[in-house]
Structure formats: C-alpha cells, structure tokens
Design the sequence.
C-alpha cells in the first residue's frame, strides 16, 4: 500500500466513524432520571430499562394490575383470616408472572436468551406494577376515602416488599434470595398486625379453613408453573 | 469448537423433538436444513439456552450452560433470532435493539454506537425511529436480526432468518452472514437450500429429531449422484436424496 492509498483508507475510516457516531447520537435515547437512578441502584442498565418500560407494555400491565387489585381486595377485607393476606402476594406474583410471561409477553422467547436473568426481570416487573398501582392508589385516596384501605393496607406495603426483594436480590445476586426476603418482610408485617389484633390464633386453629387454604395454594402453584413454563417449539 | 453437542435429546411430553444429536461447529456459517417438525427449532432453542436438554451433553463457547454463571457468560456472547420474533409494537427500531443490547449486559457506553451499527448493517437506517407496529414483515425480520448481532456475538443462532425478506434483501443478508461467520459461529436454520448454497461452509440435515447428514454443501450435492431425487437445483436434489434415504432407513427399522 503506497502513501496515497494509506491516506485514502485513513480518510475513509474517519468518514465512516464520524457518520456512525452521528447516527448513534441521533438515534440514542437519553435515559430519564428514574432510569438512571434505577440503573445505579440495580447495578444493571438492562434491569432499569425493563423497570421503566413495565407500564408501557399496556396489556400485560392491565392484566397484572387487575390481579394485583383483586388479591389486594381479598387481603384487606378484614376477614380475620391471616392466611388470606399471607397468600395474596402469591396470587399477585402468579398474575404478574402470567402477564409478563410466555402467554402474553410477545418478546418472552427472546428475553429467555438474555444475560440478565428472566427472574430478575420478573422482580422488576413486579416492582413496576406495584409502584405504579400504588401511585394511582395514592392519587385515588386523595380524591376519595374508599381507596385508602387497599392503598395503605396492600399497594404501598407490597411496593416496599418488592423493593426489599429487589434490593436483596441485587446484593445477593440471587432472585430466589430476593423473593424469600420480600415474602419474609410481608409475612412479618401481616403476622405482627394479626397478633396485635388477637385474630391470628383464631384463624389458624379453625380446621374448616385448612382445605380451602390448601386448594388455594395448589391453584397458585399451578398458575405460577403454567405461567413460567417454556413454550414448545414448532419443529 | 464453539458448539459441542453429544447425544442431545429433548422431549415435550410424549413427543421426542430431538433424539440424540451429535454435532460440533467452529467459526463459520453452519446451515441446518430439514422438513417441518424435524427438530431444528428445538435444537436451536437448546443452543440459545431458552430450554434445557432432556439429556445429553451441550457445551457452548467452551462452557456448560447448565450452570448459572457459565450460562450468563454464554448469553452475553450470544445472538438469537427466534422463528417467531416477538416484539413490543410501541418500541421504535432503535429502542428495540437498545433494549436487548442492555439485557445482554453490553457496557452502557458502547450501546449507542453498537445499536447504530447493527441498524445500519441490516439496512434499517431510514427506519431507526419508526415504531415496530408500522414496519412490514421483512423489516421486522431485519430488526430481529439487528438485535441478534448488536453485541457482535461469538455464537449467532438464526431460525428462518430470511422468511419475509425480498430477493435483494436476501442477497444482502447472505453477505452479512458470511461477514459474521468470519469470526463467529453462525447457525442458520432454514428451509431455503439456496441460502445454504450461497452462505454456508457446512450443512447438517435433520429428520425426525436426528442428524441424517453432516458435511459441506458440495458433499450434499454429491448425494444426489446416481439417484432420481426430485429438485430444481443440485442442492435440492441432494436434500431430497438424503431425506429419501433417511426415511427408507427409518421405515426398514420400523
């Protein structure tokens, strides 16, 4: 290669590089404040992106929110049965797993092949759903007193439980550890309030409730297994 | 070898989708041919770590995907285009490619340039800011290819990548395949034998969950010699001859 050809090649590389950089600048999206803060806290820009896109995936978000509000309504009815409140997060988790799982999420197959664990993505989805629902609940509570119970008895505490789960999962680098921590936090909160009210022993000792409790648990397990099952290939 | 497979099987209930596959592949473009239901997609999904094998040995990029740590390392170096590309309709092409670049744990600083390069390489430059819901089938396929190559993968798995592409786009795509195959292992599952002839250095043919041929495209063509196998092109005749032989052998065993 002579000097002219070398100069020509260098110039070509410069032009291509500058064009690429210009395109990258034009197409790149500046992450918002929430996404940047989440990225630092979660130590993963991918998880932060999954978190902020959660409500924009409208159909999964609507389905997940309907299940979350249904579970919350049952948990805050004040039946005097603490296992209803204890099992409510399982129902909500199953609903979120289904909504953002293979049945509804169109990009589930692709997500399964990503380095960021799909369980971690599911945890941030759960936080996203609860956080947005809690914000809506707070707004509704300000407008009317009817939403206060479910907002402060279910949505806000569960948002905190999800945040705790995500924090532990991030530090321990294990989604399972995060789920265990979140459930432990919620369980302690429910049992403390039941013990304080003197309702816990009465509900546990009622033998007529054991079969419904077991059936309910089995249904939750089946929903969760179905929702997270890998779909069958076509050939 | 970037792909080492021995005795790999996958069952779905009573159906044996992959029935004892042995395969190895290094850098280059590897074509996976076979009729519908042959097990190509199931094999590719196991290689993409989407589903685990029922039994057998699978090593990708020198690692065992059975463990969490190695699987994560493999996934960082993996590009995958599923047969049915799922996408978020409200995302733009650039947002879609960026989302998966981030989920592949690419360093944030590298992502904008990598996204731009992947979109340019797939010829979607003028559609980078278009919402996915507004794109044609061929453009969506190219957006899928862009997310697969955004991290410059060492192992690129493409399931029916040319479905929906017009002839001009297919020619450009084959050039892209050859370019990727210079440094990575590219496995392409396809029905189109002309894609294999134009881009692949090696080819395997699957039937009923098994590999019934593994060799070069020239060796596949040679399998048609002395037979009256059907087909309009030499590779098609080789494909038909191997498939007919495999089916008659399976019939004899039964």
Sequence:
């Amino acid at each position: 290669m002579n000097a002219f050809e070398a100069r020509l090649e260098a110039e070509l590389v410069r032009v291509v590089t500058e064009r690429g950089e210009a395109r990258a600048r034009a197409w790149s999206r500046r992450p918002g404040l929430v996404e940047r803060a989440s990225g630092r806290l979660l130590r993963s820009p991918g998880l932060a992106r999954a978190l902020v896109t959660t409500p924009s995936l409208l159909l999964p978000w609507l389905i997940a929110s309907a299940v979350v509000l249904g579970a919350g309504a049952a948990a805050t009815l004040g039946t005097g049965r603490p296992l209803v409140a204890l099992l409510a997060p399982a129902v909500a988790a199953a609903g979120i797993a289904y909504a953002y799982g293979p049945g509804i999420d169109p990009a589930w197959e692709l997500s399964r092949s990503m380095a960021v664990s799909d369980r971690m993505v599911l945890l941030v989805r759960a936080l996203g759903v609860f956080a947005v629902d809690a914000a809506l609940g707070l707004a509704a509570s300000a407008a009317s007193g009817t939403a206060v119970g479910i907002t402060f008895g279910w949505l806000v505490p569960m948002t905190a439980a999800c945040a705790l789960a995500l924090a532990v999962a991030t530090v321990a680098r294990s989604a399972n550890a995060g789920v265990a921590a979140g459930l432990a936090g919620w369980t302690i909160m429910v049992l403390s309030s039941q013990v304080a009210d003197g309702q816990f022993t009465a509900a546990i000792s009622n033998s007529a409730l054991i079969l419904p409790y077991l059936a309910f648990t089995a249904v939750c397990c089946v929903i969760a297994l179905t929702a997270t099952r890998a779909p069958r290939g076509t050939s | 070898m970037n792909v080492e497979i021995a005795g790999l099987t996958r069952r779905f209930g009573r159906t044996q989708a992959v029935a004892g596959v042995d395969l190895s592949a290094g850098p280059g473009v590897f074509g996976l041919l076979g009729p519908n239901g042959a097990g190509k997609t199931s094999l590719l999904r196991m290689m993409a770590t989407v589903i685990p094998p029922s039994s057998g040995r699978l090593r990708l990029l020198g690692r065992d995907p059975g463990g969490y740590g190695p699987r994560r390392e493999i996934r960082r170096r993996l590009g995958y285009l599923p047969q049915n590309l799922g996408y978020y309709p409200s995302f733009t092409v650039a947002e879609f490619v960026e989302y998966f670049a981030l989920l592949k744990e690419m360093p944030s600083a590298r992502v904008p340039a990598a996204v731009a390069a992947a979109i340019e390489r797939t010829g979607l430059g003028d559609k980078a800011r278009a919402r996915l819901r507004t794109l044609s089938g061929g453009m969506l396929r190219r957006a899928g290819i862009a997310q697969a190559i955004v991290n410059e993968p060492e192992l690129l798995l493409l399931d029916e990548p040319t479905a929906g592409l017009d002839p001009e786009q297919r020619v450009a795509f084959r050039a892209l395949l050859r370019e990727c195959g210079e440094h990575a292992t590219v496995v392409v599952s396809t029905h189109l034998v002309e894609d294999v002839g134009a881009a692949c250095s090696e080819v395997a043919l699957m039937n009923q969950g098994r590999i019934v041929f593994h060799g070069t495209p020239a060796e596949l063509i040679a399998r048609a010699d002395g037979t009256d196998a059907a087909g309009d092109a030499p590779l098609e005749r080789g494909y038909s001859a191997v498939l007919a032989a495999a089916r008659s052998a399976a019939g004899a065993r039964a």
Notes: The beta strands of chain B are 3-12, 15-25, 28-33, 55-60, 78-81, 155-159, 185-189, 202-207, 210-215. The radius of gyration of chain B is 18 Å.
